[in-house]
Write the structure tokens for this entry.
Amino acid sequence: QEKPDEDQFISEVLENTDVIPLLFSIIETDKGKIKFYCNKVIQIISERQPQLIYPNFNEVANLIHASNSFIKWGTIITLSNLIAVDEDNRFAAIYEEYLDLIDSESMITAATVVGNVWKIIKKNPTCENDIIQRMLRITENIYLNKGEPSPECNNVLIGHAIDCFDKYFEMSNNKEQIKDFIAAQIDNPRSQVSNKAKVFLKKHESAL
């Protein structure tokens, strides 16, 4: 009838993991708002103990097709958390579909992917070259706001990309490409992005 305390419920789920498949069932069948609560619980557990959600990888992957954006966004994050324990390389089956979301017309969908792809690169460094090329396209992609192309959405995405690069830059094999991309944002009309670019270049000056 009402949502239980989040922390308490998560603790109970961690003690009784048989509940986890039920959470997925609720997400698939619930017509109200409780599915969002269940999705958030799964996402948080995937951050804390991804190995507990990993057996349900296929159920998570299926939710990337969800028509509801909130479920889709939570799923994008959950999948990125599961990569750390993906010893069976299950993510490979949805790699293209997942990364293609960077080109989605939805800025939030694209931003959610961009904000989490560093986890893929840290787990599988050989993917970086491909991911970098997809990331660099965000300056030219068309993202919609209220059905209209929005250059400001591109700027928001660029800010997320800078945050992403910052999380793994020291191990990158594409430092020059990243540096050139970020240096070009010093005069970005969105002040938050311009400031992020300056801070990044200063922070990583010794590695450039």
About this structure: The mean pLDDT is 95. Strands lie at 144-145, 148-149. Residues 102 and 110 are 4 Å apart (CA to CA). Residues 151-168 form the longest helix (18 residues).
